[in-house]
Amino acid sequence: MTTKGNELLKEEAVKMKLVFAIVHDEDGHKVMDELNKSGFSVTKLCSSGGFLKAGNTTLLVGVEEDKLDMVIGIIEKKSKSRKQVLSSTMSPNGMGGVFMPYPVEVVVGGATIFVLDVERFEKV
Question: Within 10 Å of residue 28's Cβ, how many Cβ atoms?
Fold first, then answer.
């Protein structure tokens, strides 16, 4: 609280959230573009991992709590899951140690989203 003359002003702290969104590389630019068009600042980190050890894009978005659902909605809309056929890198059991690649259908894309409370936020 601060005082201004005889008035007592209550300063309300804006609650902030930090969104970590891990999306498929093919979706990263679409998600970033849409977030930027909607007025959100985004930081992009290149990452890899998961079952396929494929390239991912990790996006960080600092957002006011009341706009959190909008950010998550954009991420959901622009990062859809899809099926992809890959050659297996594992040898089937019972083949006597013989390696025979075979096609495997896997789901890629979508997003993994983490939301953290932000104790302090400053833009300098």
Answer: 23
Structural domains of the chain, ranges and CATH numbers in brackets = 14-81+109-118 (3.30.70.120)
For tokens 């093919």, the residue is 26
Which three-class secondary structure state does DSSP give residue 116? strand
A 10 A CB-CB count for 70 gives: 15
* pLDDT tens digits in sequence order for the chain, 124 residues long: 444 554 444 446 789 999 999 998 889 999 999 999 999 999 999 887 766 666 789 999 999 999 999 999 999 999 987 776 766 666 556 555 666 677 777 767 789 999 999 998 888 8
DSSP SS3 for 65: helix
34: DSSP letter: H
Rounded Cα distance between 53 and 43, Å, is: 22
* Residues β-bridged to residue 117: 17
Q: Distance between CA 47 and CA 24 in Å, rounded?
A: 10
Number of Cβ within 10 Å of residue 27's Cβ equals: 23
